[in-house]
Amino acid sequence: MSDLTTLSMTEAADAFARGEVTAEAMVRASLARIEAHDGKVNSVIRLDRDAALDQAAAQDKARAAGQAPGKLAGAPMMHKDMYYRAGKVSSCGSKIRKDFVPKVTATVLQRLDAAGAIDMGTLNMAEFAQNPTGHNAHFGDCHNPWNPAYCTGGSSSGSGAAVAARFVTAALGSDTGGSIRLPATLCGVTGLKATQTRVSRHGVMPLSFSCDNVGPLVRTARDAARFLAVTAGHDPKDPTSAPEAVPDYEAALTGHAKGLKVAVCETYFLDGADAPVVAGFEAALAALREAGAEVTRVKAPSLRAINAYVALVSRVEGATIHANWMREHPGDYAIHLSSRLYGGYAIPGHLYVEALSRRGALLRQFVAETLTGFDVVATPTLRTRVPTLAETDIDADPANWARFMAVSANTRPFNYLGLPTVSIPCGLDDRGLPIGLQLAARPFAEATLLRAADAFQQVTDWHRKAPAL
């Protein structure tokens, strides 16, 4: 345990609970790594050094006095800069909110605080969470720690980069079209989008009322299981949050996939996929079989309508949320963002209502045609190799639009459907950059989903690999 930053979230919390490490040592290790390397990555917006050290000292003192630590005590974290903490600036990655100080604290932060997670500050993100690549014209682009010329994925760019770079053990992201799973894939970490409504969104900057999700970027499926157990559950402050009881997700991890049935969609998700991605995906399927799963190829239903509808919903709702700012501060948005928001005002209301009303029927169809007789669906998270920042910069060159939008082709459908989905690292491509495996399950079947992801990680070590920095 010479380098404490190699510990995953659960490893750090468990080591602290056993008295093998101090919270102060964990925080100082994270601070040293951030100071040494974030100049190349640009993942941090605000570093709360003194507050984190004070929190760590209090935890060490409490443990020494015999108090039982929380489930996440001793684990350093930072979060996407759109989770409100009363009295602290929350920029939302924007110029418009660069000085915004909320009066409330997000429910998810309150739950992490109660579990002992050490909050060290906030992380870079795409402006107002509306970008699948991680570009930011106001705080500077976040750089992939595996190679700074390449994208981190977005919009939770700093969260993916900081966890991959071993700056922190975990980070909150948000996912409206893939914004947790994409940085998880491009940065080589684990990212979980739970079932729509599983985690409270109170005190979180909204993007799309119908598609927003709160969730973690972490090192392992076990980390995701513990994180979700702490943060999930109904919240009276968020009337859309689900009333379903929260199971012990970590207890559901059996270490194997025996008895699990995995469906592989032969169409859409692999359409036009790059050869290294296909090779990595096929190797991942072999690993799932090795872990005990039964893997079967199926025909996926058409996702053309789903992709059209998710674009309609997110654009109309995004334009609605930003209406006042678009009138008062139109020049404070990056060009690519303002153009997308203005497009939302041109979408007829009847099409928006159609997109919402068809959601239930399309969800039932997808589950019936893809998950009947199966526990999870497996796809590549990203069809292409990790793109560079330059070739996805649409402010610099609008001709990059197709490549920019292709990044989220495999993640967007699951936001419209509201299904729980996880991305886990499953290989490196021919340039040494990460490849991701995406797994999806029925609504509120996170325990099964994480069991499959954990079983994969028991027979592979991709989640243990880290960029050299």
TrEMBL record:
<dbReference type="InterPro" id="IPR023631">
    <property type="entry name" value="Amidase_dom"/>
</dbReference>
<protein>
    <submittedName>
        <fullName>Asp-tRNA(Asn)/Glu-tRNA(Gln) amidotransferase GatCAB subunit A</fullName>
    </submittedName>
</protein>
<feature type="domain" description="Amidase">
    <location>
        <begin position="26"/>
        <end position="450"/>
    </location>
</feature>
<dbReference type="InterPro" id="IPR020556">
    <property type="entry name" value="Amidase_CS"/>
</dbReference>
<dbReference type="InterPro" id="IPR000120">
    <property type="entry name" value="Amidase"/>
</dbReference>
<dbReference type="InterPro" id="IPR036928">
    <property type="entry name" value="AS_sf"/>
</dbReference>
<dbReference type="Pfam" id="PF01425">
    <property type="entry name" value="Amidase"/>
</dbReference>
